[in-house]
Design goal:
25% helix; Self-incomp_S1; secreted; S-protein homolog; self-incompatibility
């Protein structure tokens, strides 16, 4: 009896939640999210150059174990990677950005923070006045880096 109730709750959650995730992410430039991504814990981080005036961004992102090396992003281009949070709850990625004589390092994904703002697709926009992180559950952009 409990197993049937649990399965019913999961199915209802997927029917209600998954289409909303797909729609909101497509509107915000993310790739289409699949049910498998949600169920297996996959996270996708996308960092987009949203600068004005054609400013090119040199972006070098990494974690303790993975180095994505430097990417040169023209306006509108992005760098994206997928992963699963580690078992210890300490997943952390950071980036170093060089753009228009500005050099800054910042956390681009910290599981302690991101689990409350994105469940699969974690979008970031680099703008002239700072870095913006998309809060999926509130459907808004938050400025985190000035």
């Amino acid at each position: 009896m409990m197993k049937a109730l649990f399965i019913t709750i999961i199915v209802l959650f997927l029917i209600i939640r998954v289409p909303a995730v797909q729609i909101s992410q497509q509107e915000n430039g993310g790739r289409k999210i699949h049910v498998d991504d949600i169920l297996d814990g996959t996270k996708i981080v996308r960092v987009t150059n949203a600068m004005n005036d054609g400013i090119v961004v040199h972006l070098h992102c990494q974690s303790k174990d993975t180095d994505f090396h430097e990417h040169v992003l023209a306006v509108g281009e992005h760098q994206e990677w997928s992963f699963k949070d580690n078992l210890f709850g300490t997943t952390l990625y950071w980036c170093t950005m060089d753009a228009n004589n500005v050099h800054v390092s910042f956390e681009v994904y910290n599981v302690d923070i991101e689990e409350n703002i994105c469940n699969v697709q974690c979008n970031r926009n680099l703008k002239n006045d700072g870095a913006y992180f998309y809060h999926q559950f509130e459907s808004k952009w938050e400025k985190r880096l000035a």
